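Quick one:
INPUT:
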C-alpha cells in the first residue's frame, strides 16, 4: 500500500506496514483501525503538532489532510503477526525509495519502531548518507546527518500503547520536536 500526505512535506514518517483491518479498508496507512488504534494514537499527536487537520481518521472520506507531512511504510502489505521477514522488508524497500524520491523537501524522518528507524537509515544510505556506527534506537532520540534529521519513536502499536511503553505525552515529544526542528528552534 502506498503512503499518503502532503507532496511538499518536509517530514516523512515511516511505519512498519499497513494494518490488516484499518489501512486495507481505508486505503491509507495508519487510518481506520478504530478507537485507540495505532492510527488514532499517531494522528492525535500529529494533529497536536499541526501536521494533521483532524485528530482521528477512520474512513476514506473523513477529510483527513496532512500538512507538511507524508506517511509511508517500510513494508507495503500487512505481514502475518505484524512481523515482516527481512526478505519482505528488502522487497518493499524500492517502493519506499521511490516515494521518498518524490518528496524533495523532506528534511526530517520519523522512524516508528525499530523497523521504521532502520528503514530511514537504509533510505538515507540510498542517497549516499551513511553514519557509522549506526545510531542506536531510543525513543525520541534524534540524529543529524548531512542535512537530514532522523527521530526514533516507539511504534504506536496497541501492544506498546496498552502496556504504557508508549504514552500520548511520549508521542507528543516526538512530533513537537519535529515541529521545532522545522521551525529552526529545536536542537537535533
Amino acid at each position: 500500500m502506498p503512503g499518503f500526505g502532503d507532496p511538499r512535506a518536509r517530514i516523512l514518517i515511516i511505519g512498519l506496514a499497513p494494518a490488516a483491518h484499518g489501512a486495507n479498508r481505508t486505503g491509507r496507512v495508519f487510518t481506520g483501525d478504530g478507537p485507540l488504534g495505532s492510527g488514532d494514537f499517531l494522528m492525535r499527536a500529529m494533529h497536536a503538532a499541526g501536521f494533521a487537520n483532524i485528530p482521528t481518521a477512520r474512513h476514506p472520506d473523513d477529510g483527513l489532510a496532512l500538512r507538511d507531512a507524508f506517511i509511508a511504510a517500510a513494508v507495503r502489505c500487512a505481514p502475518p503477526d505484524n512481523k515482516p521477514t527481512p526478505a519482505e522488508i528488502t522487497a518493499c524497500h524500492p517502493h519506499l525509495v521511490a516515494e521518498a524520491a518524490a518528496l524533495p523537501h523532506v528534511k526530517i524522518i520519523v522512524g516508528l519502531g525499530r523497523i521504521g528507524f532502520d528503514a530511514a537509515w537504509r533510505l538515507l544510505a540510498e542517497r549516499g548518507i551513511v553514519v557509522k556506527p549506526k545510531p542506536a534506537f531510543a525513543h525520541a532520540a534524534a540524529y543529524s546527518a548531512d542535512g537530514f534529521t532522523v527521530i526514533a519513536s516507539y511504534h504506536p502499536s496497541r501492544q506498546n500503547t496498552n502496556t504504557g511503553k508508549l504514552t500520548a505525552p511520549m508521542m507528543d515529544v516526538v512530533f513537537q520536536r519535529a515541529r521545532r526542528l522545522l521551525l529552526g528552534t529545536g536542537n537535533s
